[in-house]
Amino acid sequence: MNKIKYLFSVLFVALTFAACTDELEPMTTKYASFSSSSETIGLLQGEEKVIDVKVYTVNTSGSDRTYGVVIDEKGSVIDTKRYSYQLPSEVVIPSGSNEGVIKVTVKNIDLDFGEKLPLTIFLKGDDENFTQGKFSLNLYSVCKSYDVNVLKGKTLTGQDDWTTPNVEKITVKENNGKVFLSGIAHGFLTNNGVYNFPVSEVADVPIDLDVKTGDFTFARSKTCLWAGQYEIFVEGKGKYISCAKTITLSYNVYINFKGDIVHIGGFIPKGEAEEYILNAVVKE
């Protein structure tokens, strides 16, 4: 008789537990986060795009789950003169699914071609729906093509990043489909705060330009004669941004000293000058 009572007791507990588990929903079904932390978006001037930002939960639920969508002002650069955006105030993860989509519309008004501006959002839950993490759209402007003709024959002016920034003037030339840059490092050589000597015998430096990306490299080539007696060579890379009428460069400078081609950093007292790389940005 006692055995029968015991079996009934076990059966009652098991049935009660099963009923409870059917009624209770795991906490993880109400826990939402972004599928990634960021995405970089390039936009043509005036272009508008709709970006799908996906939100996930671990499990599905028998009812819809709603989360607020909020701009993180501290993590965003909001500038309506440079871009516009539209996004919903909430995202819904439907019943029977563990995925929701936030459709963010962004438009390039006057974004920079180099700097990326972040638009960061986060999810807002409540006492029953929990969230974690943020998501950033990093927006910047891109060129549709890198047309050499846009800057051919033009002289672009800017500065390098030496201790005292020097004015650099670089002229873009083209001959039989080959692109050349004239004037690389001349501002640095004539006004670097240490040896301010004139340049002569200006040479055109050939560059290997990828017209699909605007990236280019240039092998060690003569750029000029310095102080009337020293041949100067440059070697490096850069980016040709025809839409912005801008060229960025990063390069080493070498000097022909008594027949040896050596890094000019050894002659310029600037800390780690032996490996010093000059960076310059020039624009029309």
Blueprint of the fold:
Elements (H helix, E strand, L loop, with lengths): L1 H22 L7 E4 L3 E6 L4 E10 L7 E7 L11 E4 L3 E4 L5 E10 L8 E8 L5 E3 L1 E8 L13 E6 L6 E9 L2 E5 L3 H5 L8 E2 L3 E6 L5 E12 L3 E12 L4 E12 L2 E4 L14 E6 L1
Parallel strand pairs: 1-9, 2-10
Antiparallel strand pairs: 1-3, 3-7, 4-6, 4-8, 5-7, 8-10, 11-12, 11-20, 12-13, 13-15, 14-16, 15-16, 16-17, 17-18, 18-19, 18-20
Roughly how many Å apart are the termini? 100 Å
Q: How large a portion of the residues is in β-strands, by DSSP E?
A: over 45%
Overall mean pLDDT: 83
- How many strand units? 20
Order of helices and strands: HEEEEEEEEEEEEEHEEEEEEE
Percent in helix: under 10%
Query: What is the C-alpha radius of gyration, as a whole number of Å?
Result: 31 Å
| Total tally of structural domains | 2
Number of helices: 2
Q: Looking across the biggest beta sheet, what order are the strands in?
A: 11-12-13-15-16-17-18-20
User: Main beta sheet: strand number and arrangement?
Assistant: 8 strands, antiparallel, barrel
Structural class based on helices, strands and sheet pairing: mainly beta
Overall, the morphology is elongated
User: Can you tell me the residue ranges where pLDDT is under 50 for at least 5 consecutive residues?
Assistant: 1-25
